Each structure stands twice: as structure tokens, then as C-alpha cells.
Amino acid sequence: MTNLTEAEAAGRVMVALDYPDAAAAESLVRSLEGIPCYLKVGMQLFYAAGPGFVASLKERGYKVFLDLKMHDIPNTVKGGSNSITKLGVDVFNVHAAGGMQMMTAALEGVEAALSGDSSLKRPLVIAVTQLTSTSQAVLNDEIGIGGAVEDAVIRYAKLAKQAGLGGVVASPQEVQSIKAACGSDFRTITPGIRPSGAAVNDQSRIMTPREALEQGTDYMVIGRPITAAADPRAALQSIIKELI
Ligand SMILES: O=c1ccn([C@@H]2O[C@H](COP(=O)(O)O)[C@@H](O)[C@H]2O)c(=O)[nH]1
Q1: What per-residue confidence (pLDDT) applies to 154?
Q2: Residues enclosing ligand 1, CB less than 6 A?
Q3: DSSP letters along 34-50, please?
Q4: How far is the CA of 221 from the centre of ligand 1 (A)?
Q5: What SUPFAM superfamilies does UniProt report for this protein, alphabetically (predicted)?
Q6: How is the chain split among helix, strand and coil, in percent rounded to 5?
Q7: Is 214 helix (H, G, I), strand (E, B) or coil?
Q8: Residue 6 confidence class, pLDDT cut points 50, 70, 90
Q9: Are residues 178 and 154 in contact, defined by beta-carbon separation less than 8 angstroms?
């Protein structure tokens, strides 16, 4: 048991809307109506449905994580961050592998947007460390980065913290080390969540929702265990129940 209320537990879940178009995503959103979870819009949906879909979620009061994982030269990321901030999203991200200057530029883009429109809310800017699909073997043998995945994650997390970002995307397996290295206020947003018995799919570094919560994660990103379920609302409700 934890001290989380049902609403608080729902607020820790970010449902990944990985759909090919607005109509498909809309149908899932409607099925979850009234549950105060975050909605995550990633590349597939954003490239198909664009800023208009994000704006429609915000108009309906949803908290939105725009997961576009920017990774480009600093000037381009600054511009991208500026445009994203103007969409009014609550959370967005860049790749920590872009380095300190790129992450700082992302924050400059945010500041420029906020200074031009006082009605905008400051988004939480976070950095992707090592994708949760990346295993130890892939990191070492394919990508060619030596050492333990966890060490790479912590290196990226420290760099993101130094750049002034508010948190990182990582596996729940790394949450305790990230918090120890970067402080308890430094947010962890963790995909790689699989309820017991669920298909692992292409994820590698996974944990159940309950285990992730016990590691101290702030938010858990969950896609297919909800969206591919016969009854997505029931699947989300069962995850929330596991968290309270
Ligand atoms: O390291 C990362 C970064 C982002 N993701 C995203 O999270 C969801 C996970 O979806 P599942 O269906 O629960 O696997 C997806 O949108 C990814 O793009 C990630 O998995 N790992």
C-alpha cells in the first residue's frame, strides 16, 4: 500500500498515444474520459495530426507530454523548444546525447517564448538518457559505448541536471541511482513499464507499475499495455489500482 489516492495514482501515469492519426487517438482518449492521467503525444501521432491535436487536448484540460526527443544542433533545438512552448504543453524532451550546449539552448527557447507571452505556462523540460529498448549488449556491442547501461544513464542525467533541465527519461531500474546522483526533486519519467504477464514487445529494461513506484519514479509512461488491451479503460484502471 502507498498513500496515493486514486487521482494521485492516475496523475503518475502518462498514457502513450502511439496512433497513426487523430481519429484513432481520439477514440482512446474518449475511452479514458474522466481519468486524470497525462497523455503523451509522440512522433507518430504528432507527425500525422500536428499541433492542432495537441491544442485540442490542452483545450480539454489534459496534461500533455510532447515526446519529440529533439536531438539537433543547439540553434535548431532552441527554435524547436520555442515553438513547442507556445503549444502550451506541460512536458517536452530532448536527447541528453545532444550535449550541454544543446540542452541549454532548449531552455533558452523556452525563455524566449515565455517572455513573449505571459499567459504561457513554463513546461518541464527533460532529457532522454538511454532508451529503455537499449539492452546492455546493444549499448556495448552495437552502439559501441562501453560500461554499464546504468553508468551511461547517470552520466546523461548529471549532464541534464547541470544544464538546468528538470529531469530525465530512463528505465525505472535506474530511478534510485538518478535520485541519489541528482537529487530527489530531479524528475524521473519512466517508460519500460510492463504489468506482470504483459508482452514485453521491444522494451528491454522493464519493471511492473508497482515496482516502478516503489523505486520512487515520478511518472510512468505506459503505451501498449493500455492501448493494445481489449478494454483500455479497464487496463488503465487496473494499473491505477496496483499503485494505490
Ligand atoms: O526510452 C524511452 C523513451 C520513450 N519511450 C516511449 O514510451 C512509450 C512506451 O510505450 P510502450 O508501448 O509502453 O512500450 C513509447 O511511446 C515510446 O516512444 C520509451 O519507450 N523509451
Answers
A1: 98
A2: 16, 18, 42, 128, 131-132, 169, 191, 201, 203, 221-225
A3: T---EEEEEHHHHHHHH
A4: 7
A5: Ribulose-phoshate binding barrel
A6: 50, 15, 35
A7: helix
A8: very high
A9: yes
**Catalytic residue of the set 69, 86, 121, 161:** 69
| Nearest to 131, CA basis, from 161, 169, 181 | 169
Summarize pLDDT for 148-181 with one digit per residue, the tens. Answer: 999 999 999 999 999 999 999 999 999 999 999 9
Instruction: Taking residues 73-89, report their average pLDDT.
Output: 98
Q: At what angle do helices 74-86 and 100-116 cross, to 10 degrees?
A: 40
Clarify whether 63 is annotated catalytic.
Answer: no
- Contact (Cβ atoms closer than 8 angstroms) between residue 149 and residue 125: no
Best substitution site from 221, 224, 227, 239 to test ligand 1's pocket, by max atoms within 8 Å of Cβ? 221
CA 131 from chain center: how many Å?
11
Residue positions counted in the chain: 244
Q: Amino acid identity, residue 234?
A: A
Q: Give residue 71's pLDDT.
A: 98
The region, left, alpha or beta by phi > 0 then psi within -120 to 50, assigned to residue 71 is beta
- Residue where the block lists cell 552495437: 142
pTM here? 0.97
Which residue numbers belong to the known binding site for substrate?
A: 18, 40, 67-76, 132, 194, 203, 223-224
Q: How many CB atoms lie within 10 A of CB 216?
A: 13
Cα–ligand 1 centroid distance for 73 (angstroms): 24
